[in-house]
Write a structure and sequence with these properties.
globular, 4-vinyl reductase, 5 helices, V4R, binds zinc ion, about 20% strand, alpha+beta, Muramoyl-pentapeptide Carboxypeptidase, domain 2, single chain
Length: about 150
């Protein structure tokens, strides 16, 4: 039994400040707090955190998961290529867009883990999401490869 569900997160009753927080706060939690603040750039933690969040979303299809990615303003997914066991997607307007480039750093692993967690119940765990490109690394856009196996 979970103390909080994703649906609980939608119950927002702030009268003055509303339902949004600035992107710099999200980025600060992600990049200053987690990426910089945790051992190994938060690798294991982001995976656990992302998967848990994704699972709580209870989506029922790949399309719904990608749509939610956009609704939550993480970024706008676009399919680049699809073959039998792999889906290659790019993320337009990723939350990391505009940050300074630091080659060798890909910072959108948690968001990929959210996707993996959201898709995991649909594909009975036989799914793996890997971040392959990132704006922060100097790439033209952020990209993930989703492997179904
Ligand atoms: Zn990104």
């Amino acid at each position: 039994m979970n103390l909080f569900t994703f649906d609980d997160m939608k119950n927002i009753k702030r009268k003055t400040l509303g339902d949004a927080v600035p992107l710099e706060l999200f980025r600060s939690v992600r990049l200053i707090g987690m990426y910089q603040g945790l051992p190994m750039k938060g690798k294991n933690t982001t995976l656990a955190v992302g998967r848990k969040i994704g699972e709580s979303m209870e989506v029922t299809s790949l399309e719904e998961a990608l749509q939610l990615f956009e609704e939550l303003k993480i970024g706008i997914p676009r399919v680049i290529e699809k073959n039998g066991s792999e889906l290659h997607i790019a993320i337009e307007d990723c939350f990391c867009e505009g940050l300074p480039v630091h080659e060798g750093n890909m910072v959108c692993d948690l968001e990929g883990a959210i996707l993996e967690g959201a898709l995991s119940p649909i594909y009975k765990g036989k799914i793996h999401v890997r971040e392959v490109k990132c704006n922060v690394n100097g790439d033209a856009e952020c990209e993930y490869k989703i492997r179904f196996s």
